From TrEMBL:
MF (Gene Ontology): phosphorelay sensor kinase activity
Listed name of the protein: histidine kinase
Alphabetized Pfam families for the sequence: HATPase_c (PF02518), HisKA (PF00512)
Source organism phylogeny: Bacteria, Pseudomonadati, Pseudomonadota, Alphaproteobacteria, Rhodobacterales
Catalytic reactions of this protein: ATP + protein L-histidine = ADP + protein N-phospho-L-histidine
Domain Histidine kinase: from-to ranges: 115-347
InterPro entries, per database record: HATPase_C_sf (IPR036890), HATPase_dom (IPR003594), His_kinase_dom (IPR005467), HisK_dim/P_dom (IPR003661), HisK_dim/P_sf (IPR036097), PAS-like_dom_sf (IPR035965), Sensor_HK_Regulatory (IPR050736), Sig_transdc_His_kin-like_C (IPR004358)
CDD domains listed in its UniProt record: HATPase, HisKA
Record EC number: 2.7.13.3
Root EC class: transferase
Aminoacyl-tRNA synthetase recorded as keyword: no
Source species of the chain: Hasllibacter halocynthiae
Keywords noted in UniProt: Kinase, Phosphoprotein, Transferase, Two-component regulatory system
Amino acid sequence: MTGRLIDALPLPVVTVDRSGRLSGANPAGEALIGGGLTGRHFVTALRRPAALDAVEAALGAVGPPERAEAPWEGDDGARWRMTATPGPGGGAVLCFEDVTAGAAVDRQRREFVANVSHELRTPLTALTGFVETLRGPARDDPAARDRFLAVMAEEAARMNRLIADLLALSRVEAGAHERPAARIPLGPAVARALETLAGAAEAAGMAIRADLPPDGGAAVRADADQVVQVVTNLVENALKYGRSEGGTVAVTLDGPVDAPALRGTAMRLRVEDDGPGLDPVHLPRLAERFYRADGDGAASRSRGEGSGGTGLGLAIVKHIVHRHRGRLTFDGAPGKGLTATVLLPTD
């Protein structure tokens, strides 16, 4: 009966008898550690120091039997948590829990903290250096003082933008599971965003060409302010990396269009620049936080270095679109610019 219960468990399970030999495993356990191991001593069957220590603790090899845990990495790179529990009448039961997803989240969290630290350290280092210079050699040099103060103000503004984007991203993530309830046409929100970006386009020597439905388009469940932020971030990205001095950013809103990925119809927003483009290998990762796409004409497309951005704009767009149960995709190639497409369901 015990053997049948173990076989029915979805998690990998391996049993060890009081002599330290493997006495059984369910199919999931054999798939993880290998078949034909029954009767072999756990030392030769498991071959991982941390796992061996956990089994010894459960068997009471060096003290009273006690429950112990150890990491386990599968041959396919998956990460598991092995729990060795003392069994009745001696022996031990080894249960393996897949923690691959949790490990990936931890890695992303560490990378995020490292990236934020880097992005804040750069302007802080510049500010510290200029403060020292103003206290020393430039103390009595008005021209240098004014120049350094201007740079310090720019670096302070950069930190302020980063903090503002971090707070915006946090707010979007906090409401990710709450789809907007109000139904609105997207046209007015898109037009509002483009109106505020006219000055930035003029300063960059570029033009924004808009093609919006006269009636605003079909109504969708959406947060108007977040739609404005999506358009703002996408167009700002296009202005930064499009063809300066005479370049054009085309913004199109149409639909409803068929959207198989959403199993229905959707309003479609497209933002297209005529810049240098980038290698398609970077497209799936463009909306990652602080992702940097290096390449001819594509360096720092998603990261703020050298562009005045924070590296979070496209990540904010991705999370807003996901909150609306929509899809965000990118299309482009070297010399062909970049097109960002947002689909928001009409249901």
